[in-house]
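Penicillin-binding protein structure dump, as promised
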Amino acid sequence: MVVLRKCARLAVLGLVAAVVLAVMSFPVVGGIGALAAQVSNGAVNVAPASLLAGNTPDVTTVTDSTGKPIAFLYNQFRTPVPSTQISAAMKAAIVAIEDRRFFEHGGVDPVGTIRALVNDAGGGAQQGGSTLTQQYVKNYELYVAATNDAQRQAAVAPSLARKIHEAELAVTVDHNLSKEDILTRYLNIVYFGHGAYGVAAAARVYFNTTASALTVPQAALLAGMVQSPTQFDPIEHPEAAKARRDVVIAQLRQLGSITPADAATATAAPLGVVDETSVPPEGCTGAGDDGYFCAYVVRYLEQAGFTGDQLLSGGYTIRTTLDPVAQEKAKSAVDSQVPPRTPHVADVLSFVQPGQTLHPITAMVANRTYGNKPGQSSYGLPYQPENLGAGSVYKIFTAATAMEQGLIGIDSVIDVPPSGYLSPIYKDASGHDIPVHNAEETLAPQLSLTEALAESPNTAFVKLEESTGIPPIVDMAQRLGMTSLSEPVSDKPGAMSIADTVKAERQASFTLGVTPTSDLELANVDATLQSHGMWCPPTPILSVTDQSGKPVPVNQAPCRQAVAPALADSLVNGLSQDDQPGGTSAAAASAEGWSRPASAKTGTTQIFQSAAFVGATPQLSGAAIVFDDSRNPRPICDGSPPSTCSSGTLFGGGAPARTFYKAAGDILGDAPVVPLAPPSPRYLRGRLS
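structure tokens r here:
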């Protein structure tokens, strides 16, 4: 039997080749050489093995933690389905109108092919004659193998060389695959117009149904469209589409696939297409309020080794950590503080769940809509570092460093020099002293570290740097989660990282938070502390599965112990007074009815162009930054809403803290109040006490 099939295959190809040579009147040797040259000129030359594997571009679906889709990533909107999920009516309709001898020939119909070749060679209108198997080959070259315009043009070129090439591959396909497989692959790859590739996409786009549920009139409409999706477009040309559909129905009746009565019923049926035919928006710009989170998912997976092409065509299902309820409440909080179209003022908010083995991102929002339209932003506002800094939030790193060095504990009393303090390490680029000022002029000359973290005197922490040294503080920031400090300061080759630049230049201003800062990383810093010092990457991924549902491994950084658990627990307690009377966020906490124990810190940059807040409970950690996101930042005055002004009044305890407390309070809702881990006696006092 195998020998007979091979002989039949050779006979068909010999017949087609003989006709081609006769039509072209080529000498035998020269003709074959010319044909070979034509085939290779710009064509893909698909390997039979690739064609037989039959992998087609498939939509990647990004979902929230519940499995609800939030975005679709694709170049071609296609969802391949198995034969069992395609209705019998659809299979019968495409065979009836495109290749009624499909189950009889061996991949090439010699009579039809000869007719098409003769007409093509004579300059007449291109005839049919291509079998479904040949069409599958052509569509595979066009939609899968071709990667540039030249290859796509070659895949559909009306040349005799391509016909020979196509016929040979079609016979190979027929020899190795069942008719059912070929028919299924064809229906999964062909274009139906309006951005719908494959029968499943077409069923959704035109009828809001599935491929398995397609009725006779619906299947006939789609089958009739493949010849020319534009000419037989049921939206733009309903009369032509109906006439073509009815031709398919008549063919089905003639072949005995349906009864005359069924044919009459199908012919009388309306087209039944949906009012608005469109594929789902492609990419993260179509994800609405989830756009920034979606963009971070893509960035995260690319850094984990996925290519952009894989994500756009791999048909993955990416189940993320996004909590839709938390996301909705977070978005409501930022918009209530800074409405989306507030000029120059952005408000970003990220939430990370603490844990010993995973730090999942539960929400990530900005008041700006993600996108490219006016008033929107395609910059990763919540996760990309903003250049204006986070202010005194960075004092967390100075405190942690001094505690780890054994210099102080959370109960240690530290000096608070008055405003105008001249530190031996706080100088400008020319080596001149820079006076250090405090936001408040009535601070006590000495405070405990816990009180200092709550009241945030600049002079106290700059003086503390004199004992710790600056490089260890930068290292501590990176260990606790400020990983973007490893990024270069510029795009120039060989540029130093931000961290190395701060160390090399001994920038004592680091503790005052003047470096570019990622809101997401800040949220993860407090998550690390609440996780007893265990750092894990802020991950947006729960799982990735392929087209068949098999898990796909994701290369993620392992968790690591950033600081000793006792130090982290003690520092969390040292940060627990910010929302209490005298703390910089006390008014915001009171206004939002906050009553949970939390570790928190505010920050404000020197000329009020940005302000930040980080806060966490053992269940949830978050950070909010309000900043001028325009090309020429100006000071921001707090208000309803905040706005740019000449002098500035924005503090971390204002809009950023209000954003956090409102969102976190709504998200936690009636969840049990969990106390902070107790401090360790080892980190209550230190050598400087």
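DSSP finds 25 helices and 16 strands in the chain.
lmk if u need the other ones
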